[in-house]
Amino acid sequence: MKLVIKRPVAAFLSALAIVSSSQAQNPITNARAGTASLPAGIHPLKAGGIQNFYQLTDKIYSGSAPEGDAAFADLQARGVKTIITVDGAKPDVEAARRHGIRYVHLPFGYDGVPTNQAIRLVKAAETLPGPIYVHCHHGLHRGPAGAAVICMGMVGWTPAQADSWLKLAGTSTNYPGLYRTVEAFQPPSAQALKMVPEDFPETSPIPPLADVMVQIDQTVDRLKLIKQAGYHAPASNPDLDPAHETLLLDELFKELARSPIAEKRDGDFRAKLARAEQAAGEFHTSLSVTPVISLKADAAFQHLNDACAACHKAHRN
After folding, report:
1. What's the pLDDT band for 205 if we cut at 50, 70, 90?
2. Residue 310 contacts residue 275 (beta carbons within 8 Å)
3. What pLDDT was estimated at residue 35?
4. If you classify domain 209-315 with CATH, what class do you get?
């Protein structure tokens, strides 16, 4: 039997197909479905050597760390005058200078944007030549959070708009501190901004190895409590999130591996650090599934312990 579709129904189905096709080809449209408060005007860009590249306003861009002269040349062609990095690694100041761009280094961690650093970000964006490009390493987490507080302070983004931007940028909800501090951020008054010094550094001091290891040891201690609680939040620390803690540990190792601290150490240290980084990643993966398989998590934790012990024996103990 031949199926006959009446003309009005056929027209509706045709229009629906056009809309569906258009939405499938438009990532921003798709993203808006889950980010209803997304500020108008945000759009994705493409450039060699830059990932997760977006223009947020006529003066603010966000993305990953520029890699290679082509990336800096693209920023220069777009008129960018200042790059603000919130990443912990040392920025490529010389490459930026070759393209007439100034670097500013205002780093913060994955646990959130400290209030004083958020105010410095706004002051830098308001007083330094623009347009301004804000980045972290991958342009996914800290960079979008830094760009969010800048836009809240400069163009009046609401917390809901900033939250929608973080979701569009791909900022992981495993970093609740980034979401919380952006949501709670209050744009500074003119008087508060006036009191912020304008001596913005091209590079900020990298914490010494001892400080980084203290952070790693403290995170491992919290993970030991989580392990004892069967990979759940322990009763003594109900706010601990197992997957979040393993993610923080993984990122601490990754950032240490990219830092000048590691570059200055010998090959054996870097190799052992790479094994510890791999083990931290495996442990995070084992706690990111539901339900957690205890045998796999135990094995991953033991691998991490062994990697850390081997490095400590050779380079600390």
Report:
1. confident
2. yes
3. 58
4. mainly alpha
Helix residue ranges, H only, the chain: 7-24, 27-32, 69-77, 93-98, 115-127, 142-154, 159-169, 176-184, 190-194, 209-228, 242-258, 260-263, 267-286, 294-315
Question: 3-state DSSP call for residue 37?
Answer: coil
Structure-derived torsion over alpha carbons of residues 149, 150, 151, 153, reported in degrees to the nearest 10: 80
Give span(s): CATH 1.20.120, the chain.
Answer: 209-315
pLDDT tens-digit readout, 223-241: 888 989 998 888 888 888 8
Domain span(s) for CATH 3.90.190.10 in the chain: 34-194
Query: Do 142 and 110 touch, CB atoms closer than 8 A?
Result: yes
Pairing of strands 54-55, 43-44: antiparallel
Other beta carbons within 10 Å of 294: 12
How far is the C-alpha of 135 from the C-alpha of 27, rounded, in Å? Answer: 21
Residue 23 pLDDT: 36
CATH T-level assignment (fold) for domain 34-194: Protein-Tyrosine Phosphatase; Chain A (3.90.190)
